[in-house]
Structures are given as C-alpha cells and as structure tokens.
Write a structure and sequence with these properties.
By secondary structure, the chain is an alpha/beta fold. It contains seven helices and 14 strands.
Length: 275
C-alpha cells in the first residue's frame, strides 16, 4: 500500500531577475586547463571570461550581464513525496537541486505553483508562519553540519526544541543515545569526528519530531563507511513514517534510496526506483 503524499509540489517555478551590470555567480563544469566562457549558466549575453583552473574539476566564476534577463531556476516542477519513503534528488551543481530544497523547506517562495506539507499550503505564508511551520514540520541536515562550536552535542541538539528546556535536554539525550552518541553528549563539535558531528546534526533535525527531513549533501564530508552508516539511519527514519529527501550528486548515495529523482536545468527528468 502506497503511503499518502506528505509533501506535494505542483507546477513549481522560480525565476531570478538579473539586471544589467549585476553580478551572477555560476558554476562551470570543466576538465581542467584554460576555459573561455560566453553565455553561461543560463544567463544570456554574459561577458566572456577567460581563466586558468587549478586541478579541481569545477570552479565558481563571476560574470557580468550586458542586459537584463530572467533566469528560470526551476521550471514546472511537480512531484509527490510519500511518507515512509527515502527519496534521493540527484543532479549536477547548478541543476536546481538546492533551489528546490529551499522552496520545499519554506525558505524561498516560488514565483508560481504550489507546495503542501500534510495539507498545509506553503505559498503565501507570512515569515512568522513559515518559521513556525519549519520548526514544527521540517528538519534540516546540511553538509557542513552547522553546529555551534561553543555548545556541547546535547546542547546543539536541544537548541531548536519548542516545548521547554528541561524536556529538550531529556529528548536530546534520548536521541543521541539512539544514534550511538550517548557517551559523546557532553563533547563540543571540535572534539567529535565528522561522522559524529553529522549524527548530532541529524539528532537536532529530529528533536521536534518533524514529518519531513530535508538533507542537502549530508554525506559530502564523510568517508565511505561512515556514509553508509548515516544512510542506514536515514532509511530507519523514513521507515518510521517520515518523508525524507536527500539532495546529492553522488550516485552511490542514490542507490540507498527507495526512489530517485533526477534534475537537470531546473526540471525533473527520468525517475527510477532503487529498491
């Protein structure tokens, strides 16, 4: 039996206006060496740039437009994400993955279309209502962990708790124990490994028992073994009835998902089932 859709997106579009002379940061995938840019990153009439890259395969460059333009960041995106399912959103840098995540997380309003979480419409919410919805319904996990360095693991986890400090401390302790970090609860982020820090970040995302977990490249700073451990935790969390979406460019991460969505140039493309 298919679980009801916890997160529904219909006809989503996000446009960015780039005015004459404005600066737009774009990502160009390259193989190394000297690259000459022209109209890049979907921004027409861009001033050509020439630069020499280091050994990295990608570089962020700054270009200036010669005329105002409208850039379609997301184009007619429609999808339903079900409760109890781990979904991977895969695509190259600049494909629109993070932009979609920001819209789904009530961080960026779309220019058109609709977004619903458990029947609540995100479009049109005021800033206070959007913040309240994020705190109650959505948990975020980031590649860079975003832990406060002067707080302990337990204090970081309890920080967003919405029902009192004493109860928050108890809930944080319980979550850290579940994620295998009971003995590390009193340690600060600088005293933890990358994998431990990400588990702390995951516990923080779960502290208010949200219906939706949105993770942006959560395994990007982890080694292969730790990555698989974390993906196992994400699968457990989804199996409890949550909607879990992981944004990644790593096909290995996508293999752990129940469902794979692929994004290119602001649109969802072919869909595959991993399991």
């Amino acid at each position: 039996m298919v679980s009801p859709a916890a997160l529904t997106v219909a006809g989503l579009a996000v446009l960015t206006t780039v005015s004459a002379g404005d600066c737009a940061t774009v990502t160009i995938a390259v193989d190394g060496g000297e690259v000459t840019g022209g109209p890049v990153g979907g921004v027409p009439d861009a001033v050509a740039v020439s630069f020499t890259l280091p050994l990295s395969r990608s570089a962020c460059v700054t270009v200036y437009t010669t005329a105002g333009s409208r850039v379609e960041v997301l184009r007619d995106v429609s999808v339903q994400l079900s409760a109890g399912q781990l979904t991977a959103l895969v695509g190259r840098s600049g494909s629109g993955k993070s932009s979609l995540l920001n819209v789904l997380g009530a961080l960026t309003p779309p220019d058109s279309g609709s977004v619903q979480i458990n029947g609540v419409h995100l479009v049109g919410l005021g800033s206070a209502a959007a913040a309240r919805l994020r705190g109650e319904q959505i948990g975020f996990v980031f590649q860079a962990f975003n832990l406060l360095p002067h707080l302990t693991a337990a204090q970081n986890v309890a920080l967003p708790y919405r029902r009192g400090a004493h109860a928050g401390a108890a809930a944080a302790k319980e979550l850290l124990g579940r994620l295998g970090l009971a003995e590390r609860a009193g340690h600060r982020p600088g005293e933890l490994s990358a994998g431990e820090q990400q588990r702390v970040a995951l516990a923080r995302a779960l502290i208010n028992d949200p219906a939706v977990i949105l993770a942006d490249e959560p395994t990007g700073n982890l080694d292969g073994e730790t990555e698989q451990q974390l993906l196992g935790l994400f699968r457990e969390i989804a199996a409890e009835g949550r909607t879990v979406l992981i944004v990644t460019h790593n096909d290995g991460v996508a293999e752990a998902a129940d469902r794979v969505l692929r994004m290119h140039a602001g649109q969802l493309e072919a869909e595959a089932s991993s399991r």
